[in-house]
Known about the structure:
By secondary structure, the protein is mainly alpha-helical.
Amino acid sequence: MEGHVKRPMNAFMVWSRGERRKLAQQNPSMQNSEISKQLGYQWKSLTEAEKRPFFQEAQRLKTLHREKYPNYKYQTHRRVKVPQRSYTLQREVASTKLYNLLQWDNNLHTIIYGQDWARAAHQSSKNQKSIYLQPVDIPTGYPLQQKQQHQQQQHMHLQQQQQQQQHQFH
């Protein structure tokens, strides 16, 4: 990242820079995360007197940093969490609107949800039992009794379909 000014190292960072190399050389197969844990334990076990030179060095670096970048202000750059789209519609978030969509006949339906729902609709156009929902169509919660009835109907229908398939093969 161009133009990005790093924070000055704190006492732990000053100390751990050299210690990390030593630990990595002594244990070449050790993961970096494990090295970091070990360094944390070691740092905590040091006395204040043992830590003092590293605090002094960190203070010196902080002073140099302030002189070099007088307008510097630390700003956190946390990653923006992108909400995950659910591609399986969970019963708990289904609503009366969706429930009613599914009641137009007593068949189980494939529910296709996603940004590319038009392509999915085209690819499965032979399947007459599909419902295509755009993200804005996904509704929120419906009453527990309706949910239970719907689950029972789905279960019964699935059993009927399985029985029909078994009879076709016999």
